[in-house]
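Anyone have tokens for NAD kinase? Sequence:
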Amino acid sequence: MKTFALVSRQDATSEKLAKHIRTVLNEHMQYDANRPDLVISIGGDGTMLEACHRHAASLDHTSFVGLHTGTLGFYTNYAADECDLLLEDILTKTPEQTERSLLDVYLNERWVDIALNEMRVEENRFTMVLDVYLKDYFFERFRGNGICVCTPAGSTGYNRSLGGSIVCAGLKSMQLSEVAGIHHNQFRSLQSSLVLDDSFTVTLIPRASRHAILGIDRDVYEISQGDTVKVSISNRSMKFANYRPIPLSQRLRRSFINDDQW
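Reply: yep, here.
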């Protein structure tokens, strides 16, 4: 018997839908919070990030699908009023499996976590100085508020607000973007996002910082001057169960454009 688990946003609508989904699926599948075949995320993209990290130990075995009740639903294929359609698809269809790249993040050579969207080293109170290395070769000394490294799937999130490019989610790559860089006749950096293939590692070392943080998706860690943060594309991936695939163009329009010109 196939197994499932639920990760729900903590609001009345999401919790009501979660209860309904569990009631229906319990007649056909077994609930397993530890190693499920399918995880159903009920909420927005933040809920899907929570689902990914909660079930990180079983990514080789688990697929994910999202029901949108939150604010942004780039990772979700079903709206709240399509809950019964989602249940019908789960019970009657074999989904197309779509894999999304993850990042492995290390702090001082010790693995910390995976990132589905992005990792970032930031300092919001004062200007920070960051040494940036690509494949262990010195690349630049950055001055500003920080550096963000995102996955293709995460390129539509924080990276986009920084002026980074939106990258097709199926590409095995990562993108480095500056956070409020300082540029004048004495300090220079790339001033552009940089897309790297899976042969690269990015190393970030704070050289002048008093309140730096390492952000990995929704989690935050304090780091110190001289700490070494390294990020690379993970050998693991996150699998999405696409019962009804949505084209990238439609997903982008729904999430960011949403006009009535056509």
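DSSP finds five helices and 17 strands in the chain.
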